[in-house]
């Protein structure tokens, strides 16, 4: 086509696909071109704005490395990561929620009832629950990869004062699907906002806060892996998570309990002499064939 116009450019673009283009690639690139072309026309994008966008993407790449995943953060604050979670939701399963950039591979195995709190100050938090299938059957032997911030709001990878795997561990559920561990109550914290993504937040009058949460990845043979988070019902940022990760079924109440009700069979049993917080978070996994 030698007479490309703003009215036919999308069709011209689609006509350039080769006959052997993978059908899914064709579907995705078709929709991408249609939406991007429509966007440029809708806002009447100027050359200066287009150049600013290109510079922004360049700087997003430049600041990224093995530890800093600025493109994932960009996807998170634009709501794209959460939309991908939601369009891939499994009926009857616990909602998934953003992975975020602070998961690290290779966390140590921890036993049922293990303590992640160690020497940190503040009330003990007991987290417990059961992992089940969508048909209600408990799933024993599931692996739960757990990570959270220290009370200073930092993940171990951000904080030189913490060991590599501080507040990280992988617990295997018992035969009845149950898991339990102790920790500290996580705190609200800000996503990294000292790079290009921070500029978008600033430019649109947005704050960088996330409500407090614990991260989980749950893997079990024959089930879809679930990446999710559990949020505290009393957190002030629950209705304004800057990465859109909150879902109703992931919000749990932390209940204060007297010291003498602390259960047996956990690493801290017999050592808790002050009121502690207890939260129950049950998880439902979807079978792979579903
Ligand atoms: C997090 O929860 O760790 C997180 C998620 C998205 C962006 C930044 C941090
Ligand atoms: Fe987080």
List keywords for this structure.
290 residues; alpha/beta; Protocatechuate 3,4-Dioxygenase, subunit A; six-stranded mixed sheet; five-stranded mixed sheet; 6 helices; 13 strands; 20% strand; binds benzoic acid; binds fe (iii) ion
Mean pLDDT: 96
Any idea what the shape is?
A: elongated
Number of helices: 6
SS class: alpha/beta
Beta-strand share of residues: 15-25%
Structural summary, described in words:
This protein is α/β, with parallel strands linked by helices. It contains 6 helices and 13 strands. The strands form 3 sheets. The protein has a 6-stranded mixed beta sheet, with no helix packed on it. Strands 2, 5, 11, 12 and 13 form a 5-stranded mixed beta sheet that branches. Strand 8 and strand 9 (226-232) form a beta hairpin. The longest helix has 21 residues, at 23-43. The protein starts with 8 loop residues before the first helix and ends in a 5-residue tail after the last strand. The mean pLDDT is 96. It binds benzoic acid (BEZ) and fe (iii) ion.
List the helices and strands and how they pair.
Blueprint: H1 9-15, H2 23-43, H3 47-63, H4 70-77, H5 80-87, E1 109-110, E2 125-133, E3 143-147, E4 168-172, E5 178-183, E6 189-190, H6 196-203, E7 209-210, E8 213-219, E9 226-232, E10 251-252, E11 255-257, E12 276-280, E13 283-285
Parallel strand pairs: 1-4, 2-12, 2-13, 9-10
Antiparallel strand pairs: 2-5, 3-4, 3-8, 6-7, 8-9, 11-12
Helix pairs in contact: 1-2
Benzoic acid (BEZ) binds at residues 73, 76, 98, 100-102, 191, 210, 243.
How would you briefly describe this protein structure?
The protein has about 290 residues and is of the alpha/beta class.
């Amino acid at each position: 086509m030698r007479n490309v116009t703003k009215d036919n450019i999308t069709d011209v673009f689609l006509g350039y696909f080769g006959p052997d283009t993978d059908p899914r690639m064709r579907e995705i690139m078709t929709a991408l071109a249609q939406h991007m072309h429509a966007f440029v026309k809708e806002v009447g994008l100027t050359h200066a704005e287009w150049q600013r966008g290109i510079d922004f993407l360049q700087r997003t790449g430049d600041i990224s490395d093995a530890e800093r995943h600025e493109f994932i953060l960009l996807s998170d604050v634009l709501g794209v990561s959460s939309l991908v979670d939601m369009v891939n939701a499994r009926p009857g399963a616990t909602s998934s929620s953003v992975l975020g950039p602070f998961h690290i591979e290779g966390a140590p195995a921890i036993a049922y009832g293990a303590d992640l709190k160690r020497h940190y100050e503040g009330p003990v938090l007991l987290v417990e629950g059961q992992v089940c299938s969508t048909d209600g059957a408990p799933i024993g032997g599931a692996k739960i990869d757990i990570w959270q911030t220290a009370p200073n709001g930092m993940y171990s990878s951000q904080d030189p004062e913490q060991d590599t795997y501080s507040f990280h561990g992988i617990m295997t559920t018992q035969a009845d699907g149950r898991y339990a561990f102790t920790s500290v109550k996580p705190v609200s914290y800000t996503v990294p906002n000292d790079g290009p993504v921070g500029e978008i937040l600033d430019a649109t009058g947005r704050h960088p806060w996330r409500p407090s949460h614990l991260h989980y990845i749950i893997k079990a043979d024959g089930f879809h892996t679930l990446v999710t988070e559990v949020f505290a019902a009393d957190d002030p940022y629950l209705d304004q998570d800057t990465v859109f990760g909150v879902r109703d079924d992931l919000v749990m109440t932390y209940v204060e309990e007297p010291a003498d009700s602390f259960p047996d069979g956990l690493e801290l049993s017999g050592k808790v002499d002050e009121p502690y917080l207890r939260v129950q978070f049950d998880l439902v996994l979807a079978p792979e064939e579903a």
